[in-house]
Amino acid sequence: MRKLILSLLLILSLSLSYALQVLEPEYHPKIIHPGDDVDLWVKVYNDNYNDNYRVENLVIKITPYYPFELKQVNPTKGEVIVNELNPGEDYTAYFKLHVNENAESGDYKIKIEVSYDLVNIKTNEKYHYNYGKIFYLPIYGVADFVVNGNFSLVPAKTMVVPITIKNVGTGKAKDVNVYVCYLLNSTNIGSYQKQVSAYETTITESKNIAFPVPIPLKSSLIYPVGESKFYLSTLNPKEEKKIFVKLYTSPKAFEGSYPLPIVITWTDEDGTKKAQLMYLGAYVKGDIILDVSNVITSPREIKPGDNYVRIDVTITNNGHAEAKDVKVKLITKKPFKDSWSNCNFKGIGNLLPGMSKVVSFYIDVDKYAEAKHYKLPLEIYYLDPEDNKHEEIEYIDIYVKAKPLFKILTKEFNVTAGKDNTIYIKIKNIGNEKAVRVRISAIKTAGQPFDYPQKSDIIGTLYPNQTGVGAIVVSVDKNAIPKPYRVTLEIRCAGDSEEGDDNVYVYQEPIILNVKKGSSNILYIIGVVILIAIALFFKFVKRKNEENNG
User: Fold this and answer.
1) CA 202 to CA 206: how far, in whole Å?
2) How far apart, in whole angstroms, are the C-alpha atoms of residue 293 and residue 217?
3) What is the pLDDT of residues 166-176, one digit of tens each?
4) Alpha-carbon span 404 to 353, nearest angstrom
5) What is each CA distance from 486 to 7, 330, 515, in whole angstroms?
6) Please, are residues 247 and 161 in contact by the beta-carbon 8 Å criterion?
7) How far apart are the first and last CA of the chain?
């Protein structure tokens, strides 16, 4: 009986102490944030309650609760198996946990369970035990921010706009400061990032400084006017606050969305000071202004009668919005016409603000065109950013310069076969410039029955509307077939150098030579015989009369 009572007391004492202690877990990192992977060490110890007992078949098991998730396998997920622990020995089990990214600040529990056999070393008596302990691990939520603003800006204007700052993180943010920075161009984004890094470095070094917001430059596109720093105190998770900022937009800002830099500094719940650079999409809405910024022609000086004149027109978008699917059509009318069908309707694609594109047209100029300035309409079609259709008309100035031009007043001449025929050609300067050293020449063509003892003649100077006469000699072959022949006449002259025209002009115009058949030699001889016979007859009659009277 006594022995039984002692055994029961021993069992009771062992059941109260379990002979195995589970110590407080250690973990890394020491400050746990949402999204972290946590290394966890659980130490168990055979506390040597009785030197005659050792621990065998020890199983250490972890049960995580939200926001923890078990990641490691040992080789059974969440379990560590130890064969034995002698009195006074310990063992440290390792586990790896992951913290849910959306976990808010708080103390979260984990459960450690042990299962083992307690074996009497001397008698080999075995007792089985299992029990669990709850531990709590602190998690510090992290603040995170988004900025929103539903507004549009107008170039060259100052506007007060609302900006909403929301804490979308899992932790409370204290001492929140918002800095609205200026936007110069895309190159200054890196500059702000460096300032944020410098700010965080100085905080790490325990220096109490404010974020250095630069002073806006004259070349800034968008920048705050007046107050640019706003103190928001504390922002809890999911809480938002609104600030009102006065922003000026440069007239050089074109239509589109611009990344306005905003810096937020705050202190997290674990006492860490942080800074974050974000960009608020500031939409600038502008107009579209399409202009003709330059016109170049080839040749540079356009004269009446020129063909395939190239006109290069530069179209520039001087507005603040993009013009899409731009099409341009040159409208020609007398004294101009398209050089070929549909050549003067061109598509030039999209034109961003400040962008230019060159479009080329080709025209023919009537040879009787008056020398003066002409306004040619240019129809421009395009779509705005909302795909609305627009049409407008611009005008390009084309100057047609004066030049001599000739008209042959007498175009048909009769010439006799077998003879040298002098023909007198009358021409008139119907152009609008003085013609100097006017010369006419016949162009000999193979196969025609003509030779030219004198193929050219100098007329001299002809003023506009003045006429002149030149002579050429045409020798017609005696066997030429009587009919009209088309002969090319070249007219050559120099421009009026007093007006800066040093060009030489060459024209070719047709004339008609009507060949007539000449008299034959037999008829000529018969005629001579008849004349002689008549002369002899009258001489005979005269002699008879003298004899009769004598």
Assistant:
1) 6
2) 30
3) 999 999 999 99
4) 46
5) 149, 40, 11
6) yes
7) 226
